[in-house]
């Protein structure tokens, strides 16, 4: 099962590609970017020379640090997708584009694309047509192996396609945190408070402090955002720690993916940095599920049966697509 961001092409992009995919069209390339959580056409180039000449000019419509898709039409009228993901692009942008490419190809028609090129350096667009690194060499000599760069990018893409959850794909990604987070975590260890909530600054890709205070376990769910993803560290009265990752389904797609990418490493880093043991990690789309009975049952499996029965009796079952995962 592949990871899909849920971002879809606009109707305008679909029409533009359909027009370009005609024998008489003079369109050479359509640039596609993600804007307002949609795949949109943001630039179009015309056929001026042969495919190698026009390919070498593509760098002019690209940014040094912003990913994009290029729907490039060859001289034989067949299209290829150029997935441009510069090394300097932010992690969140790379993730969103990687998980949106399959949707772009499928919605426009997979049968129209003969290959996908992975480019991470804008200088590659000016490579000599006879050089081994030139992308058309792979089509003309299909039996030749990929370049080392393409192998590396293909491995990343295949990992994303074969994973069942984004957190598995990106579990090695670590975001730093600021001094406020360090002080708040020191405080929870030293008993100054029992609740620390953190957010991710999307612009700097840094974990920042959202709140620190004393909270009753019975009121934990009321203190967690139902709008934006959050990380929460809570210290039980018996000294046990729990980590809660909440990700509301109506939150921004980029935010959900960014939070998911560090949901494994953040608690692991906390345990290492502060020499504590996080007894249980919870992940949910709905903070209201974090009842005192449910948390207590998970921390004390011997009483889980009676606790779970009580929860099921008092609370109707949620929608079928609601996701609640508890992981160790």
TrEMBL record:
Keyword Cytoplasm: yes
Pfam (any one): Cofilin_ADF
UniProt domain ADF-H: residue ranges: 4-132, 172-300
Location relative to the cell: Cytoplasm, Cytoskeleton
CC per GO annotation: actin filament; cytoplasm
Keywords assigned: Actin-binding, Cytoplasm, Cytoskeleton, Repeat
Name of this chain's protein: Actin depolymerizing protein
Species, as recorded: Wallemia mellicola (strain ATCC MYA-4683 / CBS 633.66)
